[in-house]
Please model this.
Amino acid sequence: MYGNRMKIKTNIFFFFAILILVTSCGTSKRIPLFQLGDDEKSDNAWISYYEKNPIRLKPGDVLGISVNVLGEPKVGANFNLPLIPLATTENSSESSSVDQGMGRQSFLIDENGEIDFPELGRVKVGGYTQTELERHLKALLVKDLLQGENAPLITVRLLSFRLYFMGEVGSPGWKTVPSEMNHINILEALSLAGDITLYGRRDAVKVTRRLPDGSYVMKVLDVGHMDVVSSPDFYLQQGDMIYVEPVKAKTHEVDISPRFNFVISLTTFVLGITSFVLAISR
Model:
């Protein structure tokens, strides 16, 4: 009798040991970034595709444009939109526009890729990069309106650079890229969304992008491998949608969890009956 009880206890021990092993079978190999293959070295040549795929302005984008002429503040003011309150408070100070949280109005690019710029009228801006547009506006101002004046200083910022995150990220939803950044890569973007969770697939990050003709294209990036930095799709565009797939263990939870709970309940019931029978037979 004693030998049977020991055998049962041993079987129970191995059952739970195997159960724990199965439920914790997720490997940590897929978690770190910038991994190399077994036959690869760390001196791979990195190629940046940012210069080949810069962010170009398109209809629907919102721009912040400021014009300043050194030594002629009144002249520069003629080309800037008026200030508007950024926020209001009950006890606002009237000491300065900065203290009151003032900011300049923005330019919305219409469906024709144009904006209505002070003094210049309708200006085509779609298809330009931010740097190219700064040069273009400067050339127009110097040519038509600022002859003999000091060269204007023009700053263009994309205020509507947003990305949408779905799936296994820390904070899904729309995220706005800081206006001082004129480009962003997939790793920087994921950090805006709280990084990939432990349940996310780092080898299958899907980036969906809308093309100018209205169609969509999807790319799959492996951010767990260092070759991602040399991918043509490493740098993102405004409006991109990033989806991080869950690992198989997470996707199977919905199907397995109810059955798993039933098995655990049934096993607990059987073990309880077994212990009761053993106690009676002593």
User: Anything to note?
Assistant: The CA atoms of residues 191 and 211 lie 25 Å apart. The chain has three domains: 2-26+250-281, 30-52+161-246, 62-158.
